[in-house]
Design brief:
Length: 197
């Protein structure tokens, strides 16, 4: 405290406030808004955001059909998640299999689809090319795992997050670590739907 002996009480209080603000803001996780602002303003050069991918709020157990419908609509193939679900939803499983989504997308006019095991570098490349990948994640706990499809529409290496549509009414961010932990459980299952050249 000898260093600050010459400071008044107000001066020391102000200095303490500055230090506390630095600690608090340094420990705060990024928000969707801060990540998107960094990308769109050009301040985050290690990032990209695909514009124009529709956000579709998924129906009950329709994350797969909602994800596929969003990507197909983005590529100019108007379809609803209910139309997709009518062809790919499996009542007995109460969900959707990636193979059925792949076949549905392959049958669509003007689209190519492939399924493979991806990685973070692949996500970056696809997003930079404005081709949003659909990832299959396993969430939940070990005894009660839950499969979930998401559409990745952006990433930031600065913040180490992806921006994705997860079936809610707005995009969300997820850290690379959390994404990899959930994605690893599906052997990094990736469905890519792109326009035919």
């Amino acid at each position: 405290m000898k260093r600050f002996k010459g400071l008044s009480f107000k001066g020391r209080a102000f200095l303490l406030l500055i230090i506390l603000l630095g600690v608090v803001t340094g420990c705060t996780a990024p928000t969707l808004q801060s990540v998107v602002t960094g990308i769109t303003s050009g301040q985050d050069s290690k990032a990209h955001l695909i514009k124009g991918v529709p956000v579709l709020t998924q129906g009950d157990k329709l994350c797969g059909p909602a994800a596929l419908a969003a990507v197909m609509n983005y590529h100019g193939n108007p379809v609803t998640q209910q139309q997709v679900a009518g062809s790919v939803f499996t009542e007995k499983a109460q969900g959707t299999f990636t193979l059925d989504m792949l076949l549905y997308a392959k049958d669509a006019k003007g689209l190519l689809a492939t399924h493979y095991s991806g990685d973070l570098n692949d996500i970056r490349r696809r997003v930079r090319d404005d081709n949003p990948p659909i990832l299959f994640l396993k969430t939940g706990v070990r005894r009660f795992p839950k499969g979930h499809y998401v559409v990745v529409t952006g990433f930031s290496d600065t913040y180490k997050v992806v921006i994705m549509h997860d079936g809610g009414d707005k995009p969300v961010i997820m850290s690379y670590n959390t994404l990899l932990a959930s994605w690893r459980k599906t052997a990094y299952s990736t469905l890519l739907v792109i326009k035919e050249q």
